[in-house]
Amino acid sequence: MLTIDAVLRVAQALEIRVDWTPRWRGGDLDRMLNAGHAAMHVAVARLFCGRPWLLSPETTFAIYGERGVIDVLAFHPPRGSLLVIELKTDLVDVQGLIGSVDRYRRLAPRIASERGWKVTSVSSWVILRDSPTNRRRVAAHAAILRVAFPQDGRTMRRWLRDPQSSVAALSCIADARRGSASSSGVHRIRRPTA
Length: 194
Description:
- This protein is an alpha/beta fold and 194 residues long.
- It has one domain: 3-Layer(aba) Sandwich (Trna Endonuclease, Chain: A, domain 1).
- The chain is 38% helix and 26% strand.
- The chain is built from 6 helices and 8 strands.
- A hairpin with a 2-residue loop joins strand 3 and strand 4.
- It starts with a helix and ends in a 7-residue tail after the last strand.
């Protein structure tokens, strides 16, 4: 039996790319991650219940060669407020996250206009699955994340009731699969103390 290190050395010598496919309890890891992502969609949808928001989950776009999927595009017709929501089960690439959200926010008015939505302001909200790993990663990158997303979950709960201005927020939400997701499931992520 070869060790992983031995496999990588042989592959490098033969100029072979090695792709790993993690499996979880006999199934693909993607299936588990998709289940987590779907649970976050459910938890977020609950935050908008009883409020005058229109939600468009998994919104695809193709604009001048730029293609992608916005996890949730939300519109508040009374205020003309457009909200781009990015859901992350795991925070892996901080720079990639900031770049993606910036791109979605820039393209969102065009996507909204195709739906007949008259937009007056555009906001963004990154929602992470509440986990010790995600909290550690946020703490490790707190300085850059708070510049990009200065508002938190408490601010967003108030803002959802009357979205008058543009905001950019980052917060955690409890996992709906554990039956704990609700509007109180959005948490503030605190800066690490010195």
